[in-house]
């Protein structure tokens, strides 16, 4: 920790922000420091840490001072960490929070995660070494490369050896995992090729293969995650799974959709359903494919796609004309209305409010006034007045 | 005279040949379906074996996830297509990404009033992590990108726009063409852009420039500062970084505008 210097927290000209992560605590070696909760900032030139509450408490360290770094996995009750091993203190170092330290490494403890991305960017910066090519406005004190070369603190050799061993061990694990993965993929490829053959046969036959068999085939494709080459996506996968799902959904969604005025955006349905399930979640495609079957299964709901591409689940009892009439009435009462105002008034999302007003416009009952200020809808006086 | 190839006899023969071919064709497809069913069972076993050895690897290593996804894509398999797929069921990849999808939607919805439905991948990443809490698993930006790609099928206009060195995530069905995207790229440097900047870097005329900026304003993706010293500045809230902005609720925003 004695390698850090006090900093203003501002980046120099030509120094660029790479990534920052909140919720990080600093360790001096293995000991916790009073730099308990802050944001760690990586730039092209430095590693900074800024206190979460008091922004003016900020310390920094040059990237050139980093020898190497490694991950320390999270444990029970312990956050994931990145251990950063540092060069010895340069003689001309400016004032910092620690006069001295018995450790030549620090740890960044990621209490709110973010270590994967931070590790990746730190690797990139340390391999690109942009600070060597881009000079900044204020000269940053740097230990000088020749110094780093000559003065090797004791223990670095030992660290490097340990790292090499660890790397070999990790490599072995990774290699095994990837080997197994490759073998698995080969087998999966066989399945893909077979499915293509079958799909072609089905296409050529045009109906000589039984309905049941087509459904069976589709369920095989679903299990493997192979796109349906026969029907592409026009009518969904139509497997038993989706039929079951459609029935389930229609039951669960009845009340919430009604509450929302008879219509709910598919993204909301996705969140609602998956939050309720907790596990064995639905994929977005599962949801869409199931909803596409509502009509065919005579369920009291419909999947509807607006011109804008927005998809909603709509109650079959939802009376379009009534909705439009009520929207027009509201607009007439007020003179004009925007989507946001209408949304607040009726208690639905802005997205759906907009779609409803657009529908009314489409059938000619409303006119729009589209300005930079907002999109407003007016009653269509061309229709009603003489 | 006898003519070969035509006549009722020839036609009947042809029909018979066709019927036989069709019959055999049907049998072949059935055979192959049965074969596929068997192979599927075998594959499932292999996948189970793989899962028992390496399921943790997928959970813990984002790098492994990337490799895994890339290999699947190469052979034409989408492990995230369905929660009912083998991959999802046995490797648990599904739940990881589908839940991430929910979290992404929620963050985008919460911020839409402020940034119009456009957000940097960096900010999205930070906020999703915050929402996940201390005990959840870490996610990389690659994970987010894959989850977003899946969300596209929900029809709400989810897309990823590369802008300079960064990525922007769009979560509303606003139409953004090449002109809009290139203006976003110019704005990326300082968080805002001016008419003269656009005209000088892109060599556009005033008409085109104004059209693009107006569209961004209408969609709520840009705000205009008419009190800027030299000329109006068009700011993109999506590009504000944490260093400059504060969290403001819609009510607070409304109040401050009164």
UniProtKB/TrEMBL annotation, chain A:
Origin: domain of life: Eukaryota
A GO CC annotation given for this chain: ESCRT II complex
Signal peptide: none
GO process annotations (BP): protein transport to vacuole involved in ubiquitin-dependent protein catabolic process via the multivesicular body sorting pathway
PROSITE patterns: GLUE (PS51495)
Record flagged with keyword Transmembrane helix: no
Gene Ontology MF term list: phosphatidylinositol-3-phosphate binding; ubiquitin binding
Classification via InterPro entries: GLUE_dom, PH-like_dom_sf, Snf8/Vps36, Vps36, WH-like_DNA-bd_sf, WH_DNA-bd_sf
Localization terms from the record: Cytoplasm; Endosome
Cross-referenced Pfam families: EAP30, Vps36_ESCRT-II
Boundaries of every GLUE N-terminal domain copy: 1-138
UniProt entry keywords in alphabetical sequence: Coiled coil, Cytoplasm, Endosome, Protein transport, Transport
Entry function: Component of the ESCRT-II complex (endosomal sorting complex required for transport II), which is required for multivesicular body (MVB) formation and sorting of endosomal cargo proteins into MVBs.
Family: Belongs to the VPS36 family.
Subunit details: Component of the endosomal sorting complex required for transport II (ESCRT-II).
Record protein name field: Vacuolar protein-sorting-associated protein 36
UniProtKB/TrEMBL annotation, chain B:
The keyword Cytoplasm is annotated on this UniProt entry: yes
InterPro entries xrefs: ESCRT-2_cplx_Snf8 (IPR016689), Snf8/Vps36 (IPR040608), WH-like_DNA-bd_sf (IPR036388), WH_DNA-bd_sf (IPR036390)
Major place of residence: cytoplasm
Superkingdom, taxonomy of origin: Eukaryota
GO CC terms: ESCRT II complex
Subcellular location: Cytoplasm
Coiled coil residues, start to end: none
A single GO BP: protein transport to vacuole involved in ubiquitin-dependent protein catabolic process via the multivesicular body sorting pathway
Keyword annotations from UniProtKB, A to Z: Coiled coil, Cytoplasm, Protein transport, Transport
Keyword Cell cycle attached: no
Similarity comment: family membership: Belongs to the SNF8 family.
Subunit details: Component of the endosomal sorting complex required for transport II (ESCRT-II).
Chain's role: Component of the endosomal sorting complex required for transport II (ESCRT-II), which is required for multivesicular body (MVB) formation and sorting of endosomal cargo proteins into MVBs.
UniProt name for this protein: Vacuolar-sorting protein SNF8
Organism of origin: Scyliorhinus torazame
Lineage: Eukaryota, Metazoa, Chordata, Craniata, Vertebrata
